[in-house]
Amino acid sequence: MLLNRIRASQDSTNVCADIEGFDFKSYTERDIAEIRRLWLEFGVLRFRATHISDQEQVRFSRHFGDFVIHPKQLQEGGHPTHPEILVISNEMKDGKPSGALGNSEATWHTDTWFYERPPAGAILRAIKVPPTGGDTYFLSTYKAYESLPAALKTVVDGRQIFFQNVFDKTGKLRLGHSEPKSADFREWSGIVHPLVRTHGETGRKALYLGGTIEGAWIVGMPLDESGDLLSELWAHVTEKSEVFVQTWQVGDIMMWDNRCTMHRRDAFDPTFIRVMYRTTTSGERPV
Asked: Domain TauD/TfdA-like: where (predicted)?
């Protein structure tokens, strides 16, 4: 049976499991259940050299929840035939971007943290990769929370964090928003989430810092104290956590749990083309 061959390889880490024995073209419900079990255990899964079709990626992704349309899909990142797929690419066609995010660095974040219901999962497949650069890094926000000093855990437990959703990380207005009238971002449109969220399936606690200190506020704290605490938490997460680095090969798939991980991407030489296809699945409101 296929199920007997699906396992995490010996190269797996505390952040990511390499999956062996899964056939994207022929699998059963039990096989999907085993993938889900490993996904929930590790947070990040890697499938090497899959070479599957766009339709097969969509079919596989559907087992893990309803599809979420990423904001970039409504702009430059739409797929020509599969609306479920976000195209991440620096390739130009007819003088226009053929995908989203270009070739620049993407700093640490959880995906669309400014949504009321951020996505649960993402499945990213490599179509074209540059010879160097464009690596993707992952860390566990479970372990970031669990490794906090006891005194700091006491400070963050039960706290809420506000994220403005008017501007993106580059300072551009998000789709559907206009320039705010107030200079105080706490008065802008935004969302409030728990600073420590409890995973809806595993019950484990994870730090939830979103994607940037700018425009984030720990509710009820003076702004300067909030900023200091957020700086301390970000340093703890990004400087002390174990990090898994994915150096891409064509056909690789990375599947991560957005509820308990953060990720970032290296910049790469714009003279080389990098094309990735991503599907995103729906999640619960953080609690």
From this structure: 15-280
